[in-house]
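Quick illustration, no need to memorize.
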Amino acid sequence: MPDRDRGDLGVEAFTHDGVAFQCYAAEEPLDVKELYEKQRSKLTSDLNKLNKATKRLDLIALFNGVKIHIYVFMVPRHESKELVKHAQAKALEVRGWKLPFIADDFAITIETDENYDCERDQIWSIPRPLIDNRPIGSVEIAKWQEENNPLFVDAQRKLGDLGLVGEGLSAALRTLLSQYLKGENMLTSLRSSFPDGWQAVARVKSMKEDLLALEYPPGAAETLADVKSIAEELAKEICIAAPTVDQLSARVLAWSAVADWVFRCPLDFVGSK
């Protein structure tokens, strides 16, 4: 169901034998409780759309005689039995609404891509671009630098700790910022076109950042080559976690993450020679 024209009425897709689908990918990282709360809220909100008087005629016309027996709530990660309990309670509530497009045996299931492993593998094997890899223009770079100048100045200091000076330092900063912005664009398009792939990349980045202080303490990286090793290691981890991401894109995403860490401080080089 397209959602650009006043929304999708709480239904991502449906089949003519009565299965409706709604997908949701909460922005990570989240712990189990936070994930459950966001998923519970989304499920409740979308189900309530089915009972809105202002949407009822649209829904009747949409389903055109189809009665929904199963409502599949698709998520990248399902960690709590509480979500199942909530879905059971909401299914009972929905049946009580006596809507013309809801079957008497209406039920809600919580599913992930593990429920569709064959289909998932087929999608991941499709050799088509899922990621926006357009180049970043000088205007975008200049705008980001102007809006985030303190971060840019701090990154300049850090790269200086690696021995970079003059034009070499300027070129490294421009490239680092370009890779950061390009990676951000890639993540945005990946989240839209393939949420599972985006979720996998986000999880790898988050886990890597959590371990930066242990794996790469200040002074561990003494040259730009050491920073390159960090990016290459992360790129390999991205390819393993998200096979749909090609190696070139994984490299950009990895350098984008490294740039982000340099700008925001998780990665520092104090004490390097």
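The CA atoms of residues 107 and 156 lie 57 Å apart.
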